[in-house]
Amino acid sequence: MKRNIKFAMLTGRLHPGMACLFLISAFCLLLFGIQNAAADVLDPDLVLYFDYEDFDGNTVVEKSGRGYDGDINGKVTQSDKGKFGKAGHFAANSFLDLDGPNIKEEDIPTEGMSIVAWINVEAVSDMAIFNARAADNTWLVHPEARGDGNYRWLNRSPGGATIFDIRAGKNKANEWVHYAGTFSRPDGIAVLYIDGNNVGEEKARVGTPIAGDWGQGARVGFNIDNKRPFTGLMDDLNVWKRGLTEDEVNSIMNDGVDAFLAVEAQGKLTTTWGRLKSN
Fold first, then answer.
1. Which of 62, 63, 78, 129 is most buried by its number of CB atoms within 10 A?
2. How far apart are CA 218 and CA 279, in angstroms?
């Protein structure tokens, strides 16, 4: 039988039924490979994902598949009042330590970055959603709710050059707000979305990449210099190493990260299957 298949393949005279079987087998092998890869990392561009559904002792489990769990400093507790299931409740001056110096170089966003989260702050004041600082003292990112009544989205290059600094939207306390800051270096555009709406955008001021190390640390909920503490609830924090599109931001906002990734995976499989059939 194997000899007949081999002969038929060499001569180009494969029975239609056998060709179909061969095609299905190839597709199954491809699907198996994709699923195995996805079992390790949910998405090649998803760097961090905290849904706050799983706490393990003094740790919040990180769900991207990269294993960057957050060590709790201070009082970060699980709340039943999340936007999607559970949420993390941050008391003042508390944060998740991500051990920035040991984040793999290939996982650090340089050509683009998106930071997305549901937040429910307890007051209108300066609050850091996420923060990282490079070994050369560059503050490379500031996604914040601001005390002056708006939100902020910023990236910097090595050496401290500001790529963009957007301050827009209306900061609201004691209600859920969806924050999404995106930046694509190839496109040269940064956008800040609040509740799925583009509230501000800026062209890159310089063409250099985002600073490429988190040598002085990375945290959720508190700046590295122990300023701008996040106080309140946070859910579905996700950090990407590319600029998400407006449609992607809204999909994540409406359906959650897991549903977005499932739809994305389905689209990739459909495209792959279409290519297989056309061949």
1. 129
2. 47
pLDDT of 10 strictly over 90? no
Asked if residue 162 lies in contact with residue 205, where contact means CB atoms within 8 angstroms, the answer is: yes
Would the pLDDT of 4 be above 80?
Answer: no
Convert the pLDDT of each residue in 127-144 to its tens digit.
999 999 999 999 999 999
- Do 138 and 156 meet the contact criterion of CB atoms below 8 Å apart? yes
- The answer for 130, left when phi > 0, alpha when psi is -120 to 50, beta otherwise, is beta
- Mean pLDDT over 158-183 rounds to 98
Residue 137 burial (CB count, 10 A): 12
| Phi-psi map region of 74: left, alpha, beta (phi>0 left; psi -120 to 50 alpha) | left
Q: What is the pLDDT of residue 266?
A: 55
Residue 20 class from Cβ within 10 Å (0-12 exposed, 13-18 middle, 19+ buried)?
A: exposed
Q: Which helix (H) or strand (E) holds 164?
A: strand 162-168
Show the DSSP H helices in 15-58 as ranges: 16-40
Percent residues over pLDDT 90 in the chain: 80
Reported as a pLDDT band with limits 50, 70 and 90, residue 15 is: low
Calculate the CA 10 to chain-centre distance: 47
Distance CA 34, CA 276 (A): 15
Question: Whose CA is closest to 118, among 66, 172, 67?
Answer: 172
Cβ burial of 45 (10 Å; 0-12, 13-18, 19+) is middle
- pLDDT at res. 195: 98
- What pLDDT is recorded for position 264? 73
Complete domains list, the chain, with CATH: 2-40 (no CATH), 46-263 (2.60.120.200)
